[in-house]
């Protein structure tokens, strides 16, 4: 099946698809209120740069959203796939600078700069698509090669995050030393070697790290640099290499050098993600009272694989302040009750349905345009995802009716049906169910849950709904909550920033910016201080 751009040309921000106007369907689509970030500016930017000749409108069955996630990172999966097949490096794709345009007088400079960079990403994506289209005219199999690479990257993200909504972390694997890295200058001074361009080396990082903790005082800037620019798997290598090279434990050595919230962030960064989640849950359960919000946040936003990995290490950790060695499910049984207990135990099974790669392969189709001169369908160089092939519309309709009958259409609530459907369906099936529920009831599913449930069970289901609709938006709201009002909820702030730094922090920041009209970097600057502030800012990045 082929898909065709609508009248006005290939413009993923500007066109209005009459068949996809419902804002509750979820996903990275321009019509989704959850991801309708900077839509006005994006539409204006894309109109300004990429107007194209009139093209044929597709029938409703083919009118799917043109490539997921162009609202944020201009579809990193497509850019990487296209550049790879073209034999290019993404950094080598040059586009012209973005011209200044009228902005609101009181708008923060960071906001203006972020919008400029977003528009530049749009231009880069368009350039790659054009080059792909040109190459398709030269090589018959080129489009299929790009498609295969694109599907492979989407499938990889599906395994990592449970969705094909390509997201991006601010902390990535550090591959080669650049000239500005302080480790380069350190090694040059110590060994007389220039390691610029060399592959990352755990031993050299450890030498720099050890030097930062020698003598009187501590070089906190050196510690911040290493911890914020190396990914978690590299930090695990650093821990092992440090003990091998110097015969002492890196974390214990750090513990004697740093303190306060700064040390809390550092120790969090050196925990493997599954252990970090398990530790946070155990601490939320320990002692008198339970912090249900932490259990809800972690268990209802993690993938099946993440939950299984967390359960595999949960029983083995027993820090001094967590006097329990029970497994996860036993702790939930003992410390929660009612509907919340059932919702959390259900989530702890890690058994939600997932989109199979075979379905994904069928759903990705090239976007074509009809050349009037040659009377041929030619590739635009881009792809669309036919969402109808990822979902079961009949089941979505049936589930929407079951939820309606279990809630607003009866006296009282049948909690079993809500828990069952919310726990079992995959992300895209639930998004379609939410969409059909709105059509059926003229009411958003969140509003219905707020009316049918209360207290922590309501919080849990609302968290699940928000996570299904748009996980980065949920975490942007949580980050706002940690810093708004008097005082800062530092433990929550640290947990979210560290936990999402390699997954979707880029998207979280952009939603945070739109929501608060100020960057996350600036909120941290106003709410935190000292090395603690500097480390958090380095993790999230200024833009």
Automatic annotation (TrEMBL):
Note the InterPro entries from the entry: Annexin, Annexin_repeat, Annexin_repeat_CS, Annexin_sf
A Pfam family matched in the record: Annexin
Give the Acidic residues compositional bias ranges. Answer: 95-111
- Where does the signal peptide begin and end? none
Top-level taxon in the UniProt lineage? Eukaryota
Keywords from UniProt, A to Z, are: Annexin, Calcium, Calcium/phospholipid-binding, Metal-binding, Phosphoprotein, Repeat
Disordered: annotated span:
95-116
Q: Does the keyword Calcium apply?
A: yes
Q: Where in the cell is it found?
A: Host cell; Secreted, Extracellular exosome; Tegument
In its UniProt record, a GO molecular function of this protein is:
calcium-dependent phospholipid binding
Q: Which SUPFAM superfamilies match?
A: Annexin
Against Gene3D superfamilies, the record matches this protein to:
Annexin
Principal cellular location given in the protein's record: host cell
Alphabetical GO CC annotations of the entry are: cytoplasm; extracellular region; host cell; nucleus; plasma membrane; vesicle membrane
Biological role stated in the UniProt entry? Involved in reproduction of the worm. Involved in host-parasite interaction. Delivered into the host cell by means of parasite exosomes. Binds to acidic phospholipid membranes in a calcium-dependent manner in vitro. Causes aggregation of liposomes in the presence of calcium, but not in its absence. Likely to promote membrane fusion. May provide structural integrity within the tegument.
Tell me its family.
Belongs to the annexin family.
Q: What is known of its domains?
A: A pair of annexin repeats may form one binding site for calcium and phospholipid.
Question: Subunit composition?
Answer: Homodimer.
In Swiss-Prot or TrEMBL terms, this protein is called: Annexin
């Amino acid at each position: 099946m082929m898909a065709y751009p609508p009248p006005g040309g290939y413009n993923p921000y500007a066109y209005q698809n009459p068949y996809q106007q419902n804002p509750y369907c979820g996903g990275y689509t321009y019509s989704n209120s959850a991801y309708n970030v900077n839509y006005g500016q994006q539409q204006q930017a894309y109109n300004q740069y990429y107007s194209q000749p009139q093209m044929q409108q597709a029938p409703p069955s083919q009118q799917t959203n043109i490539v997921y996630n162009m609202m944020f990172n201009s579809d990193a999966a497509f850019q990487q796939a296209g550049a790879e097949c073209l034999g290019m490096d993404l950094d080598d794709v040059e586009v012209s600078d973005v011209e200044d345009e009228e902005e609101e007088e009181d708008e923060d400079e960071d906001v203006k700069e972020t919008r400029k960079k977003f528009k530049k990403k749009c231009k880069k994506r368009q350039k790659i698509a054009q080059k792909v289209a040109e190459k398709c005219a030269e090589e018959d199999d080129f489009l299929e090669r790009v498609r295969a690479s694109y599907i492979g990257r989407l499938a990889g993200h599906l395994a990592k995050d449970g969705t094909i909504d390509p997201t991006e972390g601010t902390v990535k694997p550090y591959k080669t030393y650049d000239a500005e890295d302080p480790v380069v200058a350190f090694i040059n001074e110590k060994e007389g070697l220039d390691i610029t361009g060399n592959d990352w080396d755990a031993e050299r990082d450890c030498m720099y790290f050890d030097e930062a903790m020698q003598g009187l005082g501590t070089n906190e800037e050196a510690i911040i640099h290493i911890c914020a620019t190396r990914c978690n798997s590299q930090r695990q290598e650093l821990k092992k290499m440090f003990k091998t090279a110097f015969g002492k434990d890196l974390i214990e050595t750090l513990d004697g050098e740093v303190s306060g919230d700064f040390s809390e962030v550092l120790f969090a960064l050196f925990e493997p993600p599954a252990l970090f989640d398990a530790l946070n849950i155990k601490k939320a359960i320990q002692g008198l009272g339970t912090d249900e919000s932490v259990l809800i946040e972690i268990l209802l936003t993690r993938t099946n694989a993440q939950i299984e990995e967390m359960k595999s290490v949960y029983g083995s950790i027993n820090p001094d302040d967590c006097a329990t060695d029970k497994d996860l499910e036993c702790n939930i049984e003992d410390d929660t009750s009612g509907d919340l207990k059932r919702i959390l135990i259900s989530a702890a099974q890690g058994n939600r349905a997932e989109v199979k790669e075979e379905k994904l392969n069928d759903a990705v189709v090239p976007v074509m345009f009809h050349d009037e001169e040659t009377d041929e369908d030619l590739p635009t160089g881009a792809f669309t995802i036919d969402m109808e092939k990822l979902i079961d519309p009949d089941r979505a309709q049936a589930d929407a009716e079951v939820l309606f009958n279990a809630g607003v259409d009866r006296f009282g609530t049948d909690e079993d049906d809500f828990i069952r459907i919310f726990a079992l369906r995959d992300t895209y099936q639930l998004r379609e169910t939410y969409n059909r529920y709105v059509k059926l009831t003229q009411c958003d599913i969140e509003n219905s849950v707020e009316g049918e449930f209360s207290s922590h069970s309501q919080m849990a289901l609302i968290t699940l709904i928000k996570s299904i609709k748009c996980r980065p938006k949920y975490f942007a709201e949580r980050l706002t909550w940690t810093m708004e009002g008097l005082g800062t909820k530092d433990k929550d702030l640290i947990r979210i920033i560290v936990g999402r730094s390699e997954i979707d922090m880029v998207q979280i920041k952009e939603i945070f910016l739109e929501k608060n009209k100020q960057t996350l970097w600036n909120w941290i600057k106003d709410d935190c201080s000292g090395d603690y502030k500097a480390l958090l800012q380095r993790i999230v990045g200024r833009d």
